[in-house]
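Deviation from plan, reported transparently: arginine complex.
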Amino acid sequence: TKQKLWGGRFTGKTDPLMHAFNQSLRYDQRMHAADIQGSIAYAKALTRVAILTPDEEAKIVDGLTRVGKEWADGVFQVQPDDEDIHTANERRLSELIGPLGGKLHTGRSRNDQVATDMRLWLLDQVQDIEQSVKGLLRVIRGQPIRWSHLLLSHATSFRYDLERLQQLIPRISVLPLGSGPLAGNPFAIDREFLAKELGFASIAENSMWGVGDRDFIVEFLMWASLSMTHISRMAEDLIIYSTAEFGFVTLSDAYTTGSSIMPQKKNPDSLELLRGKTGRIFGNMAGFVMTLKGLPSTYNKDLQEDKEPLFDAVDNVAASLKIAEGVIATMDVHADKMAKALTMDVLATDLADYLVRKGIPFRETHHISGRAVALAEARQCQIHELTLADFQGLNANFGPDVVEVFDFEASVERRTAIGGTSKAMVERQVSVLRALLS
Ligand code: ARG
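Because the crystal trials were delayed, the predicted structure below was used instead.
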């Protein structure tokens, strides 16, 4: 059997369960492209400090490219002793190009390598997720019907989610490579060159921090938890509004499922899963913060536990954004049902405001309006069915124009201050989002 990469000081065998426990290749292989990319940049940097000749660099880069292609084509042969993506790629490189492959890891550690890979991988994923948040924002503003204000309230949360996601990027984009196992690189490796080559915005200024920091993962998990919370709250609105009792929206067949026993059912499983996944993503975040808490400085193998929660969160948040977009883009909205659900008592505040405009302090008008509601209740009628004499019996300032209060459209149109539900202010929200997305 082949030697482990770190086998020199060992004489005894690894316990088989320990081997499986330690092995991360089954999940970290999804970073294969980032690992190859990082190694290619590192090979070039080694040439610049004369550890490799240009010819050796070319052979290594060619070998790494071939390893990367094997992964991409799904033909990479995993060996039992491949501990993680880093050892697997290096093992394969040496098989392809011989002992020269063993020069690549000069001055590098898996500690700075894995931290670099994770950042490269996440930067790439964040770009896709950013597009999905924008997609969700686009379908929401595409429904300029009256209940647009409600949808736009959710869109406003997503707008700040987008902003927060973009603000994470500079903190993910910090280069660990060149930190070595913890103390730094003894071959004067040009880290500015590495950063440029790999597209990092800045360089980890402290090598111990560089290999030991996973705050960028915590921040992403926190971002995912919060934006899933927003998706969940929107889902909850739509679940209620899609019930038979409300019937404000009908979800398309594409995003619903049937019941195995109740033939009439159309279950909003998409929305319930969006709500449900939120708990799991929060769990990934809370669990990983627990992993970090109490770790001593620099790299510890505990940090390998960053991968599954991050990968799971990325997968589920990416899918959730697409599902949410699909649900909204395909649902039918029933304005007639919403209109039918309106009751005149929701205009009681407008009735109080009517008297405010006649000069009466709001605290009094609130009380008068409340008495009008009570009177209508006693008469078993709706508030707008009270007579002018009824109103004047409550307050002398009521005039015949009180009938104008009982108009839902007019009520909505009075909310003309910025952020209100008047048509102009809804259009303003749409144009703010449009400008953001263009
Ligand atoms: N698979 C490891 C991880 O994901 C790579 C780093 C290994 N470093 C070490 N000191 N054992 O964290």
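The pocket of arginine is lined by residues 24, 28, 84, 86, 110-111, 114, 299, 301, 303-304 (CB under 6 Å). We consider this an acceptable substitute for the interim report.
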